[in-house]
Amino acid sequence: MRRRILAATLLAIAVTAVVLGLPLGFSALKLVEDVSRSDLSSRAQQIATLLDEQAATQRPLDLTDAHILVPPGDQLTVHAANQVYTFGPQPGPMPLIETVPMVQDATVTLATSSAPVRAQQMQVAGLVLLLVVISAGTGMIVATVTARRLADPLRHVAARASRLGAGDFRPDLQRHGVAELDSVADALDASGAALSHLLQRERELVGDVSHQLRSRLTALQLRLEALAETEDPHDAEEASAALEQTERLSAVLDDLLAAATAARAKDAEPLDVSTELNGVGEEWREPLRAEHRALRMRVPDGLLARATPARLREAIGVLLDNALHHGKGTVTLAARHGAGTVVVEVTDSGPGVPDQLVPHVFERGFSGGGSTGVGLALARALVEADGGRLELSRARPATFGIFLPMARADDVLGIPWKADHRPR
Predict the structure, then answer these.
(1) Torsions phi, psi of 109, nearest 5?
(2) pTM (two decimals)
(3) Given 3.30.450.250, 1.25.10.10, 3.40.50.720, 3.20.20.60, which CATH number is that of 2-117?
(4) What is the DSSP letter of 406?
(5) How far is the C-alpha of 124 from the C-alpha of 120, rounded, in Å?
């Protein structure tokens, strides 16, 4: 985009320079020559007038008084009464010549060298060329600034759209003062909010449905187990067959839930969590230092998990931002191996989460500190989208834990994890 804007602007400058520069240069050269010819013609006219006065008083032709009107290096030629009078040296090749008529069929010709005029014309041409170069340079600077002013916001909006596709639904408050781009940013924020609501409702629906189905299946299995112990062989056989079907249905439900989780985590890849956390920590040290607080890192090397880098960074960013605005003291970012998981914990030294708020900290729109109540809900959605989970591990001090699936031994960093979606 920037290259196209720059190329279009430079093309416009080049066309303008050709359309205006060439006529301007030609006019300047013609003006220099016209001024020189006008001066030469004026001198010749003065000489002709002087000689006409001599002829009017019937005095013989005398060029002595006319010599003072002839510049050094110029040549004066007078044609009168079949005679030619010449004064001054030959002016060289291709001289400038002006001829003025006199009375009694006489003429005065004044010739001067063209070298000074050509030199002056070269100076004027150089000046015109310099003006064109300055104009082109100024246009290039303006084009570069304009291209950057338009291209940088476009890249920012494109990055925002990419983060939205990666599951980062947080609104972006940055605007660029360009009405069209700001409209796109507003639309992306609105789309992010709508997608976040849809994703949350989907997960709540899946959780509710799975809970209800499991509850009913468990109750049905208990009933069938009781019937399978009856003394009637036929009833016991039918109950056992029905119990087997309910167990298969339960297994199918587990597979469907696992497949749904894998589908949401299809972009997850083997990730060096240690490297990602160190990068996030460097980004947040300065904001915490500005509040006279410190960030402590306890991240061992070699922690590999399956996660989407953008989602993980955003989720941890939400937790650190929450600790910055709602916590106190030193903030600790730690990571460790868990039971088949990689655990990332964010802890601050504040008073913690009040007991009455503990059940609601992840509810969208609920906040105990005057914020929007969106951050933690989105962070949980981001983590769950990669097949992990986000929990409030400890209320005092406030400790939030992210539990990510551990990478397998055959996983390769940077290669996305391909989930098996075949029916099982």
Answers:
(1) -120, 125
(2) 0.45
(3) 3.30.450.250
(4) B
(5) 6
